[in-house]
TrEMBL record:
MF terms in GO: heme binding
Protein species of origin: Trogon melanurus
Acidic residues bias (residue ranges): 17-30
Pfam family, one: SOUL
Residue numbers spanned by region Disordered: 1-30
Stated family: Belongs to the HEBP family.
Entry protein name: HEBP2 protein
Domain of life of the organism encoding this protein: Eukaryota
């Protein structure tokens, strides 16, 4: 067996040191991201467990705007006033979504915990063992009480499956996540920024109801909050959707 030359030993040790340094940097980055999410979670009274470290890191790495797949829709109408967009009327086609129902004390807790469960599904905890890719928006279906004065606790957080997975969606390991097929729907959409909680959602519902010419054509107790940035973001880009009656 030939002896290893000093040069090859040097390169071998060099590569080993480089790999160790890269692993150490990766571990430090993972800890930093987890610590950040845990800090944000505490603000929403949500515990972010340690097993979220890898999904958080994977999602962060793949969070370039160019790599996010927007949910396809057909624009039917744009309503503007003095150059400002009041709302858009869109049609979304029939599609499969990964959905999870949540019922925490606060809306913010429900969307944070629901989003974390969906993150695990997206980040390899599925029957394909693959990273599924981010689609935007992540949506939350909310309901109001009979008097339309407040949001009820039960919400559904949902992730649109990428086009290539629509025919055969990977099976979630988490039994709380259900794959549902939603019918084609016409929505009236209006954008808003900032946090989403019971108060801000009711404000946006009332605002869009005032703007629409015929709000009675839409469901009166079911609405969708569409989130284009993750719940940890400080200044979120959101939309409120009214659903036209079938």
């Amino acid at each position: 067996m030939p002896e290893e030359s000093p040069d090859s030993a040097y390169h071998s040790n060099g590569s080993s040191l480089e790999e160790e340094a890269a692993e150490r940097m990766e571990d430090e980055e993972q800890e930093r991201l987890l610590s950040y999410w845990q800090s944000v979670g505490r603000g929403h009274q949500v515990d972010v467990p340690r097993d979220m470290a890898e999904p958080i890191q994977q999602l962060t790495r793949n969070n370039n705007p160019q790599e996010r797949q927007a949910i396809p829709f057909t624009l039917i109408q744009r309503k503007e006033k003095l150059g400002d967009l009041l709302y858009e009327k869109r049609q979304y086609g029939k599609a499969k979504w990964a959905c999870i129902k949540m019922k925490e004390k606060q809306y913010e807790q429900s969307i944070c915990l629901g989003f974390m469960k969906l993150m695990r599904y997206i980040c390899e905890q599925n029957s394909s063992g693959l990273y599924l890719g981010i689609t935007i928006p992540i949506v939350t279906v909310v309901h109001t009480n009979e008097s339309q004065s407040e949001i009820t606790p039960l919400v559904t957080v949902a992730y649109y499956l990428p086009e290539v997975l629509q025919d055969e969606p990977p099976h979630p390991f988490d039994s709380d996540i259900i794959i549902e097929e939603w019918p084609s729907t016409i929505v009236y959409s209006r954008g808003f920024r900032g946090i989403t909680n019971e108060d801000s959602i009711m404000r946006e519902i009332n605002l869009l109801a005032e703007i629409l010419e015929s709000p009675e054509l839409c469901l009166q107790d079911t609405f969708i909050i569409a989130g284009y940035t993750n719940p940890a973001a400080a200044n979120r880009h959101n939309e409120i959707w009214f659903l036209q009656r079938p």
